[in-house]
Amino acid sequence: MLLRYRLAVLALSWLATCGTAVAQTPTPEFALQYRPAQKDVEYDSPAAADVSKCKVELERNGDTSGFAVFDANGLILRRYVDTNKDRYIDQWRYYQNSIEVYRDLDTDFNHKTDQSRWLNTGGSRWGIDSDEDGKIDEWKYLSAEEASRVAISAMIDGDAALLSTVLVTAKDLKSLGLIDELASKLLRQVQEPEAAMRTILGSSRTVSSKSKWNRFDAAMPGVIPKDDGKANVDLIVYEGAMAIVETAGQHGFVQLGEMMRFGDVWKLTSIPRPAEGDSIQIQIGGVLMQPATPVGATTSQELSPALQGLIAQLQKIDQQAPAQNAKPQQLIEYLRQRTAIIEQIVSASRPGEESETWTKQLINSLTSAMQAGDQPSRTRLSQVLSGLQQKSPKSDLIAYAQYRQLFAVYSSDIGQAASNEQQQKIQAAWLNDLKQFIDAHPNAEDAPDAILQLALNAEFAGNVQESRSWYGKLVSNHGKSPQAVRAAGALLRMDLKGKPLTLSGPDLSGRQVNVSNLNDRVVLVVFWATWSTQFVADVPVLRALYEQYGDRGFEVVGVNLDQQVSDVTTFTKQNRITWPNIFQPGGLDAPLAQQFGLVTVPTMFLVDRDGRVISNGLTINDLKEKLATTFRKQ
Question: pTM here?
């Protein structure tokens, strides 16, 4: 605050004389002392040895005046502006690669920041600091991606107040007219965030003070229509959202759960929970998307009085489910009670579909308890599985139970592993279990997912032939499954080198873009999204390469996988991206992403002048070398 006030006061004399012969400017050393009010900002700052080489220039533009700081190469670093002619600075602007990425504002002109905005390539957050204490109190604009980033930043710093700004409130839920039952459940999930964070972070190996947010990951958001009776308006909801974090070069997942949109602000409906180990833990289900009764259950008119009574008990227990920040023992006790009731329901159910539906519920409840650390549930699930094998050795429920047991055991064990060596052994055992499951149940409903897990693991590990074999098996044996579609695309991608590339689609304006029509040029096809931090980092280099080789026959075709056109147009404009971009909303589930079996973005293919693929998996450094070699030959 003191530095901000000094700048404002000194600006009074600078701006009072601006435009006259005696006008004075601050030194670069002084002007560059100021820092953003918020810590989560990436901007350019010169090295200490280069500060004296910077230049400060007074500026006047219509009704505004102030001064700007430029580095030794003439690139802008800062701009301080007086917008209301009171001769005090009321906007502090920060730049990266000569693009403004962040701005602090004093909108009530009392020499204190009350708003902070992330702009252009810095994002789209707009925070309000109503009490002017340097901390965001609420958000005026916040995308789902950035809500996840704020949540993770809060957890890394142990900042419960910041986390609370992205958690739903009673006021939020009332604004949508959410029914009382759902509102109560959601509010229980976000109560006491400070205590919840202490508990979670105290035992987490995924998130620590050295972690950093990497990206947001979720399927496309869904709409819960007003006529579903859950709220007075349509609800826009992400189900099962995740954040990917990086710690010392290792990536991990944090479960965000369901997220809701309130006007221009996205919020979380539960406190984030790290998914410990290398697997994503199975969740019971989100409050908003969860049906009122288990899928496949018979109606109350068809149930016996005894069964109706048991289901009523189960519903009562579920209504009193502990909040997500509850202590592990509370969650275990809840799941034990739930399991006990479901076991009675299974016993009282009629053989056939009714019994099978509730047995699946029992299996899911036991695996959830295992995930929570309940050892007796591990034993009980084994007993349930043994009972199924004895009574119904051909039942599909055996494979259903085994697959969930496999994942629950792996998740539980990997989370307790004390060393990398132990984790590697558990990982190897898990992969072996997957193989045994496929051998035992080649036609089970979970077999395609098991095969895909093995294929992806092999590809990430660099075992190309092994991954190719698993992808091929998935296509051959489960050709109609969604996993097989992805596997077929992965095989196509792996075999692209030396072959023609067939890829086309509409750009942002609806005009058709076809790579085959560019055979006289060397073409880079890059799959990208605005939420990919790696692509954002690559853009300046990619743009420079495009400018360097464009006149010599180099073209770029982007395939964007974002959900909203507005996000893409804003990003391309801010980053001066002029090459054509095919728009394919849906992330890695988008049609073209599935066509090539993508596992990450950015993914780049380089195509020669004859339309044949030179490389089907480039990094930005690989691209620089390839282009230098290609155009050196001409």
Answer: 0.53
